[in-house]
Design brief:
Chain lengths: 375, 375
């Protein structure tokens, strides 16, 4: 039984200058908070989300017992990030589709939905917007900023953009940038969406359609990269969907893995915004703090003053342990305080969202240290 | 300078019973031969092709100096499979789109193109059709049957379906069946094709269109799985396509890898048949000789009497060395004569088509042994 979470929104009238050179006019951020901000305002933890998640990080909504937040195993009373001790904030990023201003909203300059004209947002832009939100909440310094995958990139970027405002960076199943294969998968997914005739150049809202075909393909590709080869073989293997006899069909579902992927694709296409998919995968592609430092990650991370916990998972081939180790090395080159755990887990990239006792224990003990430091 | 190859066709009037229970009525196979069949008819080598290749294995076509066959590095006068010694046969599989009967041809029962009604063909069916072709060419026993990837599956299946007709099986970068991840990638590619509105349920020929969007996505996905992470990073990395400045666009090409993939997708969609793509990926999915033996590969391979060479490539994550080793082990369990080479090559699955001196040397020396045995 989880606690009740209540989504909130904050509106920002001041425009936000973006890395692209464009400006985001007035905008809204959706967020949730759990626990209580202490008198010193020193126990705040910001959680950054990955591709398809939101500000609904933990707890359930009133009357919806199955609406657990996406990191409910990690965050809550008595959990590794203990909301009896910490004041936890989840925020939906700009350009997403769960309550913060995004492509489905109306562009005040045109009076119609932003669609594909929504400004390209970067990890750095999101961090700027999150920093403003924290300002409004009266939080000058975070005890920790934490995220997995793309969320981990935001956590890392926080320590570089606002070093004085972060005591700990917790970067899980992440990478200092995408490699060519990561970009390649993103690009195929984007092409599937953009070439869907129902995309209408990104202005499909006006046509009353959704590029579901493209979204389905994008999600199916995503799911393959979230799972390890091992866990796929264990969960699905070559199991047939029906009985023991082959149907000999190229279009009907024959194997369980096909059924699973189609189902995931269908579900996703019902709720996720196609323009948001493009924006978020592009933010992933662009993130590369070393770029402004001649590709030298150690030089880029010199700006960070926080202490760090990094976690990776052995079977994660999307953001492999090697990529986390690059961050660890670059931080150590700068003589930063770094803890690193490489968890032997079979679940691939998805492992960061799952209930693995060793993983949860590592995070728990790190947050106990944070709590003791603050005490 | 390569030799001149000349495509030929043979027509078969007798229907072919397929594993699905369906029957392929009269059909044509396109093939090429290189070298000379010796008086004993003992020097024939059959080459089986993978997904998008054909009977044009080696040499060039008259007046087309750049039309080298897909395995021209491997096969020809003085090459590892030396056409001065061996009589080499390449054959285009049933259901393909390069000259053998396929979905673009007219179904005699309806008078219109087969399209999606083309019978589902399996690796075993292809081998049966190849065996008939060899019968017509007067070849009772092959010195060797050889193939890479899906071609390797055919080579393996030859040794099980017609053990007495094969002296050597050469199985390169292959697997005893697809794993869940392999099937998953095939399924996404098929969904991209089938959900393209220009697919028209597989009868797009009559509409004068081609489901190019789907074919492009399928090919882009394929290419990612053919290359290793390492070689992608080396060839493309995070290189921008134009200059040093980011464009901040979700739809324009920003990175070189995007440009490469889109180009590969565009090229493929110009020449490859969408229904063939479905058929060939399904043949891959279905191949599983252990299935009829309770999943026991060693029991399945007990039927083989040939000697074997298996080759795998360290960075091939589509058909990893582990999968080749499963075949090696199952053959050794049956006390078969097996040579196995694991080539340390950076190129991923594509390596089997590339000019790697160690790889070519392994195949060369194996075929020298075959030649000596025959002498």
């Amino acid at each position: 039984m989880s606690f009740i979470a209540t989504p909130q929104t904050l509106h920002f009238d001041a425009p936000l200058a973006l890395r692209s050179g464009a400006t985001m006019p007035a905008y809204t951020l959706a967020y949730e908070t759990y626990g209580t901000l202490n008198a010193e305002r020193s126990n705040a933890v910001l959680i950054c989300h990955a591709l398809n998640a939101s500000h609904h990080v933990a707890g359930v909504y009133e009357g919806q017992p199955k609406s657990e937040g996406w990191w409910d195993t990690m965050i809550g009373p008595g959990k590794p990030v203990d909301t009896n001790r910490f004041f936890v904030i989840g925020v939906n990023n700009l350009g997403s589709c769960f309550g913060s201003t995004g492509p489905r909203d109306v562009n005040p300059a045109t009076g119609r939905e932003w669609g594909a004209d929504f400004p390209v947002v970067t990890v750095e832009d999101w961090v700027d917007a999150q920093a403003r939100l924290l300002g409004q909440l009266g939080i000058q310094q975070l005890a920790a900023v934490m995220g997995g995958s793309l969320g981990g990139m935001q956590a890392l970027s926080w320590t570089l953009q606002y070093p004085e405002r972060v005591r700990h960076g917790v970067v899980i199943a992440s990478a200092p940038n995408l490699n060519a294969e990561n970009i390649a998968f993103n690009e195929v997914a984007r092409r599937a969406i953009v070439t869907d005739p129902d995309f209408h150049g990104g202005h499909f809202y006006a046509h009353g359609v959704v590029p579901k075909r493209g979204l389905r393909i994008a999600r199916m590709i995503g799911h393959i990269t979230y799972l390890s080869d091992d866990v796929m073989n264990e969960k699905f293997g070559r199991q047939l969907r029906e009985g023991l006899d082959l149907k000999y069909s190229t279009q009907d579902i024959e194997f369980q893995i096909e059924s699973y992927l189609r189902h995931q694709g269908d579900k996703f296409s019902e709720y996720f915004d196609a323009n948001t998919y493009l924006l978020i995968t592009r933010a992933l592609d662009y993130f590369d703090p070393a770029r402004a430092h001649g590709g030298q990650l150690a030089r880029a991370l010199a700006a960070a003053t926080a202490k760090f916990l990094l976690v990776s998972f052995t079977t994660d081939w999307r953001f492999s342990p090697k990529r986390s180790r690059e961050i660890v090395k670059a931080l150590l080159d700068n003589r930063r305080d770094v803890s690193y755990a490489e968890i032997d887990a079979p679940h691939g990239h998805d492992a960061f969202l799952l209930e693995d006792p060793r993983y949860l224990a590592v995070v728990r003990s790190y947050f106990e240290r944070i709590a003791q430091e603050a005490a």
